[in-house]
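To whoever is on call:

I kicked off a structure prediction for a single chain this morning and the downstream step that reads the tokens threw a length-mismatch warning. I double-checked the sequence; it's 186 residues and nothing unusual in it as far as I can see. Pasting both halves so you can look.
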Amino acid sequence: MHTLTHWFIGKPLQIALTLLVAVIIRSVLVRITNRIIRRATTLHASRGMSKLTRQDFETAQSRKDQRADSVSQLLRSIITIFVWSIASITALSTLGLNVAPILTSAGVVGVAVGFGAQTLVKDYLAGIIMIIEDQYGVGDVIDVGPVTGTVIEVGLRVTRIQDSDGVIWYMRNGEVTRIGNHTQSA
């Protein structure tokens, strides 16, 4: 009777508590991350703003907000995956399942996906660095080698550029070896 009660009351309660802790931890980590990113981009963008016109200031503010949103969205996704993965493994362990094979399989799959997705990872990392460094933004006229045009969308993996003929070009961020920004001034 005691084992039956523990199985139907104790284990679900432990799992519920694990999930509640996961929700709280994710929420706290996301808030901390958002504050750090906002503070970092505010400090970076506030340098040299005293000489800007109102329109230039608003453009710079908009770019800062776009960068902060892109980076915080990426970090929120990473935090969510990490926290829920640990919570899921903990819940399965609470149910009495052996999680060692799951962790081993996840490691092997992770290595295989890592090798297969090298270019994808390269694109995302280049996109993150490009956004943090504010190399270009929406509305900038840039030269990336074979294409010169206006940036119409900046993503973590791909940037969309429209050239003077109206052609839309999709540029993978990991393939860019040089960028000339005609809009930004020194």
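Update from on-call: the warning came from a stale cache, not from the record. Cleared it. Sanity check on the structure: The mean pLDDT is 83.
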